[in-house]
UniProtKB/TrEMBL annotation:
Its cofactor is [4Fe-4S] cluster. Belongs to the aconitase/IPM isomerase family. It is found in: Mitochondrion. It comes from Endocarpon pusillum. InterPro entries: Acnase/IPM_dHydase_lsu_aba_1/3, Acoase/IPM_deHydtase_lsu_aba, Aconitase/3IPM_dehydase_swvl, Aconitase/IPM_isomerase, Aconitase_4Fe-4S_BS, Aconitase_4Fe-4S_dom, Aconitase_dom2, Aconitase_mito-like. Pfam families: Aconitase, Aconitase_C. This is Aconitate hydratase, mitochondrial. It is an enzyme of class 4 (lyase). One of its GO terms (molecular function) is aconitate hydratase activity. Its EC number is 4.2.1.-. GO terms for cellular component: cytosol; mitochondrion. Binds 1 [4Fe-4S] cluster per subunit. Residues 572-699 form the Aconitase A/isopropylmalate dehydratase small subunit swivel domain. The keyword Translocase does not apply.
Amino acid sequence: YATPASPSHLNPHPARKVAIPPYQKILRKFEDVRRILPKKHLTLAEKILYSHLANPEESLLTSTNNGDNIRGNANLKLKPDRVAMQDASAQMALLQFMTCNLPSTAVPASIHCDHMIVGEKGADTDLAESIKGNKEVFAFLESAAKRYGIEFWPPGAGIIHQTVLENYAAPGLMMLGTDSHTPNAGGLGAIAIGVGGADAVDALVDAPWELKAPKILGVRLEGELSGWASPKDVILHLAGLLTVRGGTGFIVEYHGSGVDALSATGMATICNMGAEVGATTSIFPFSSSMIPYLKATGRGSMIDAAKGIAYGPGPYNFLKADTDAQYDELVRIDLSSLEPHINGPFTPDLSTPLSQFADAVKANKWPETFGAGLIGSCTNSSYEDMTRAEDLVKQAATAGLKPKSDFFITPGSEQIRATLEDSNTLQTFSSAGGTVLANACGPCIGQWKRTDGIQRGDSNAILSSYNRNFPGRNDGNAKTMNFLASPEIVTAMCYSGSTSFNPTTDSIGDFRFQPPKGMHLPSRGFSMGNPDFQPSPARPDHSVNVVIDPHSDRLAVLEPFDAFPEADLKLQVLYKVKGQCTTDTISAAGPWLKYKGHLPNISENTLIGAINAATGETNVAYDFDGSKYGIPELAAKWKSQGHSWLVVAEDNYGEGSAREHAALQPRYLGGRIILAKSFARIHETNLKKQGIVPLTFEDKSDYNKIDALDAVEPVGLLDVLKSGGTGHVELRVTKKDGQPFNIPVKHTLSKDQCGFVLAGSALNLLAKKGRL
Ligand code: F3S
């Protein structure tokens, strides 16, 4: 792999082919959509999505009332243009893809080694160490990429979403990514959806990928940002308005006069964090700032192609919403009066305007100081973000100030890192005492080795420009409160070290920051950086063997799951979860990331973050004789005894990420049903793909009637599965010593998904149908 020592290479962009979406094909489909729905005024998201349907007629007419009520009802069977995978989720996606015995992927795909790089001392040391520690996995990914013709971006090349934005995202593109923040590409007018590995495999094998037609939430932007307010504040504010559940089932579509003044990278930041409101994805219309960004990233040839479909006559007016398009919900944001926001702790929707934050710190007894400020990541490492932060560092340096908190900078890609090196921005950060980490996820995904003395269990605060702040996410310490803000606010607050400091109004001694100034794009275009960080070519080479050591504890070949039994199930409640249950709760990250390619090993973390509804304990389950177990231990015990089980949970079960392990692991350990008050969309789909049935209470208060160790028999489930999704299901619940009673429940199984469950998993079904 490329060594981290990377003197800046001010090379022109290499002669890589520009990845232009198949516009002619997309437009032909779009003409079909116009013909099928002649009177409909379509939103931008609908135009792009429906133009990627395998069969527009079938999806738009047959499954709906003749083209009415498509949103929220129709099952869209989609053919995405491309797939991107990060290293942690790519392992399982590739292991699944390999079971299909295909010579190459059906659509262009890329792998990005970013999640497994630790952040500690700085890029040079950390990258070399991480490569050493993960050699086996990177070698597996690289060999599989070469064999199947997937572009492989080595460790150090950058974070998936930044690399995608710089190389693959394009107006009108539709892509899937095995990471929740894939919607980042919406900043360049793409429909980009975060999915689990099994969904990615659908696209990789040319099977249609199914999605319930999302509703469209319009966000009308008016006015213009100024002073301290940044694109990040748009989404921090919106997250407060919508909450983590508010975008579920929606695509967030931005429009309005305020769009034009936003940079492409700023729009990407906004779309990136749309994942935090649970949205299927977020998108901006083709706008003037996309043109210089495409040019600066070496994709001038895409501009004419995009303009051709954006502004053409009739059906070619493709890259913006029709004038009379209707939104299912509408939010207005006045950018001119928007102030910076700080969101958190522990949830990204707890949004506080900066001017009220000091009071909130006092009222909530949040820590008065914070130990570290972290900027960059896939969310906020654009040239604009970094040069605005640099301006603040320079202002403070003139006054002789140094940051009081530790200050970390994560460039999103080698391209941005090298460009910032050339403009001396990184040197400015380093001279102020900042630590520049590798071009990788690092502290954003629990790969942060803190050296400031904070121990597990110590309550403390940090500030970051990241997107997510669930407990334990950054340093594995559930007591670390991560407050999310723009890079500018994080940087300026580092100079005070106080959570109550408002850099827009307060002074440090005699010094007061002026609003930051930066540049959207580097005046001389982006540098390529170290050529060793370029990807491998997308040419399948069948002479390459994908080798998995049978004794590896990191990688294991997948065994197919068993089919659904020919009689209704008999289950026991393994665990009743209280409160939030994110994919981090179900399949923790941090040190467990290294077992992503080894299902038996990673299953030992199943639900270890879940709170027992009866006792309030975390990861403590009880067997029938009263003995105490960790949840995965009890599940494994029941599996060995042949008992299948279900989990009972509250709202938005599986929120947080596309992590398919959160579905695979319970399935591997014998889970058959998850019964919840509601589900996060991606996770609900992931469960069905792995053969687990997600059910919701018809009456949420029935959650109170069912407990751990209750016996549960689904009534009517087999009939529903066999009929392709029609009919009702009830759960017959029997307490240890009580009379049975029924709980009515709801399912969202489509015909195809019923097939997945009956076959044992989606891949089992594909294999059975002989499609592979
Ligand atoms: Fe990586 Fe964090 Fe983004 S894990 S992909 S930097 S959200």
